[in-house]
Specification:
51% of the residues lie in helices and 13% in strands. The protein is α/β, with parallel strands linked by helices. The termini are close together. The structure holds shikimate-3-phosphate (S3P). Shikimate-3-phosphate binds at residues 10, 14, 33, 44, 77-79, 116-118. Shikimate-3-phosphate (S3P) binds at residues 10, 14, 33, 44, 77-79, 116-118.
Length: 166
């Protein structure tokens, strides 16, 4: 089966939905952030603080291009679509799912989260700007868009399973 790639903004539910999909479909599960942490030997926050975002993006692209093309669910970091090279890689895949949650849902979900260096609750304007900037990039890259606001993880996973190419 063609691999399923999940894309979308931080807090849109990619991690939980990928877990549900991997269980329902009995597929291996990957998470680009987790692979980056393994490769770098430090946390995402540490990579941003010590090496900078640019270095993080180099690792992210390297990891994305090493992900399996079949029989897997791959959850990706929210900024993966920032690079044209990454968008091209994803556009060659059949099942790229954009989990689209609205901005207020996302900020509510992440209000106590301190693991996302690019998301500051003190600067909502900057976060919303980033969200709006990325929205068209998620849309142009995805083959399937799913509304992820106010739905259970199980419902979202079922909708993806119905709509994807086998
Ligand atoms: C980022 C999203 C994060 C992580 C890093 C940068 C982004 O992943 O890759 O903090 O630029 O949106 P999640 O989307 O899994 O939170």
């Amino acid at each position: 089966m063609e691999a399923i790639y999940l894309i979308g903004f931080m807090g849109s539910g990619k991690t939980t939905v990928s877990q549900e999909l991997s269980e329902k479909l009995e597929l291996a599960i990957f998470d680009t952030d987790r692979e980056i942490v393994k490769l770098a030997g430090k946390s995402i926050n540490q990579i941003f603080a010590l090496d900078g975002e640019e270095k993080f993006r180099v690792l992210e692209s390297e990891v994305l291009h090493s992900m399996p093309l079949t029989d897997a669910v791959v959850s990706t970091g929210g900024g993966i679509i920032g690079s044209e090279k990454n968008r091209l890689f994803l556009k060659e895949r059949m099942n790229v799912v954009f989990l689209n949650a609205d901005f207020s849902t996302i900020m509510e979900r992440l209000k106590d989260d301190d693991t996302r260096p690019l998301l500051s609750q003190d600067n909502l304007e900057a976060a919303e700007k980033l969200y709006n900037l990325r929205l068209p990039l998620y849309r142009e890259t995805a083959t399937i868009e799913v509304d992820a606001s106010g739905k259970s993880v199980s419902l979202i996973a079922n909708e993806i399973i119905q709509r994807m190419k086998k």
